[in-house]
Amino acid sequence: MSQYRAIRGMVDVLPDETPLWQMLEQTARDVLAAHGYAEIRTPIVENTELFARSIGEVTDIVEKEMYSFPDRNDDSLSLRPEGTASTVRAAVQHNLIQSPQRVWYMGPMFRYERPQKGRQRQFHQLGVETFGVAGPEQDAELLLMCRQWWTRLGINDELTLELNTIGSPEARASYKAALTEYLRERFDALDEDSQRRLDTNPLRILDSKSASTQAILDDAPSMTDHLDEESKAHHERLCQLLDMAGLSYSINTRLVRGLDYYNKTVFEWTTEKLGAQATVCGGGRYDMMVSQFGGRATPASGFAAGLERLVLLMQTLNLDATFDPDLYIVSSDENAFGQAMLEADRIRAEFPGLGVVQHLGGGSFKSQFKRADKSGAAWAMVFGEEEMVSGKVTLKPLRANEQQMTLSREELDTFLGQLERLTNEY
Ligand code: HAM
Predict the structure, then answer these.
(1) Is 308 a pocket residue for ligand 1 (Cβ < 6 Å)?
(2) Which of 194, 272, 306, 375 has CA atoms 20 to 30 A from the CA of 390?
(3) Any idea what the Cα angle at residue 272 is, between residues 283 and 304, rounded to 5°?
């Protein structure tokens, strides 16, 4: 029988990688809590229409990347390709946006894309959404919060903030018309993908990876000339706030994002370390979505970071995290094992900050010490025949250049207390 394998583009995160994931997630939780953001958890499946209407019928996501299926009642459902639409749906449904709200979510998203390094069909996002503040100070807060997260992860120097404003829907419509006219005159010189997009989603041509199309765009009309006054002022104030905070950015007037719901501010954090999948985080303002979903018109702004890409970036920089236990407990025979088990249980209750792993499955001391070493533990704690007689325990250092010690229970507790304090300092 052939072995089962994970679905293409859907990846197992194995135990040697989960410490890094957990570190990434915990750091995010800490930063979010420090800024007053609360978690929201929404279902992974929603009505297909919810995504189609908000993300846009002619986007790649809706046209060809959604996992959609009829349920037993013949309703069309989809696995969520992103979290913004679900969050807005929940916020409207539960009346959360009477007053300003700041929320976040973390979890799997699904897009039927061609898998490659940094691009999967099931991937994970940390998303943040805010409701109720129309001004650029909300956008600035989001970007400063990103910087705090990057700094705590040790990757801030690797990331560039690309910033743009795409104006009001009216400004965008006027720009779209001008851009379409310009590109139509040069239709034959465009790459195939851009030719197809000209009638459906011309702004996405600005994102084209084709060098010849990019060359044509060099002389194309610029969004800047079509911007409405309010969007211009919003953008200028945002830049001013970022300058004040010493947060550098590069203005990229071709940045349009792959989802249709944005207005005014859009941004992406990119890195040169990950090849083609360079964007680790993207977001912007989407002031129309709440009313589109039947809520009272409410300004909104947010972003989502791709956790796989952050993990890859940290691995590239050798910023790995590990979970190494503090103690690995070995014992000489059944009698000693029983004692050791009780002691391990007591230590875990009294010193909850310590990682305590007990050797299971017996074997010689030699083989047990081999496993102790492999576990990454700092100390082996030995329950042998001598220890059974004396009532003491032996601690053998496995990493640092320390002395082996035989301690009474009282001395042991003093030592474990110190070890716990040290462990928690890191
Ligand atoms: P997005 O740009 O589609 O925006 O996705 C955000 C991030 O998710 C990307 O920058 C990337 O790091 C990661 N990502 C997207 N697709 C994949 C994939 N196939 N494999 C691995 N990582 C991926 C959104 O989803 C918006 N909801 C962001 C937002 C929130 N805007 C306002 N609020």
Answers:
(1) yes
(2) 375
(3) 20
243 CA to centre of ligand 1 in angstroms: 26
The strand ranges marked E within 147-249 are 159-165
Is 34 a member of any domain? yes
- 263 and 398 together in one domain: no
pTM as predicted: 0.94
Residue 177 in domain: no
Q: Could you read off the pLDDT of 285-308 as tens digits, one per residue?
A: 999 999 999 999 999 999 999 999
Ligand 1 site, residue 120, Cβ cutoff 6 A? yes
Ligand 1 contact, 306 CB (< 6 A): yes
Strands (E), 210-324: 250-251, 263-271, 279-285, 300-306
pLDDT, tens only, 315-357: 999 998 888 999 999 999 999 999 999 999 999 999 999 999 9
3-state secondary structure of 191: coil
Contact (Cβ atoms closer than 8 angstroms) between residue 101 and residue 92: no
Q: Which one-letter amino acid corresponds to residue 296?
A: R
